[in-house]
Specification:
about 120 residues, alpha/beta, Rossmann fold, three-stranded parallel β-sheet, 3 strands
Length: about 120
């Protein structure tokens, strides 16, 4: 009977070890780069950033717990948008979120439109 207990105990320990090791892994901090064409204090920018954070939290992603969001605000400056886009691509985040309006699209085409 001792031999059966020993085998059962050994088998149980061997099977539970991978589960314990997996449970002890630290949570990986994911990086999200968020590029907006607005000024940082712009009401539209704040609304979009808040909605983005709330959407992530609803999916289980909480800023500074398991996700880090890096914001870049271009203030409507096409040159800054391009520079920030290059910078973010080179920093290799897990995902880059680009957010804009028809007005920023018009700036890309080289025309200035009033929204």
């Amino acid at each position: 009977m001792q031999r059966r207990k020993f085998i059962a105990f050994s088998l149980g320990a061997a099977l539970s070890r991978p589960l314990a090791a997996r449970a002890q892994r630290p949570t990986v901090m994911r990086r999200v780069a968020f590029l907006l064409p607005f000024l940082e204090n712009d009401a539209e920018a704040m609304t979009r950033v808040t909605a983005f954070r709330e959407g992530l939290e609803a999916l289980g992603w909480t800023e500074n717990r398991n996700i880090r969001i890096e914001h870049r605000y271009a203030g409507g400056d096409l040159g800054r948008i391009r520079a920030y886009a290059r910078e973010l691509v080179h920093s290799v985040p897990d995902v880059i979120v680009g957010n804009g309006t028809l007005r920023s699209r018009g700036m890309e085409e080289g025309t200035q439109r009033d929204a």
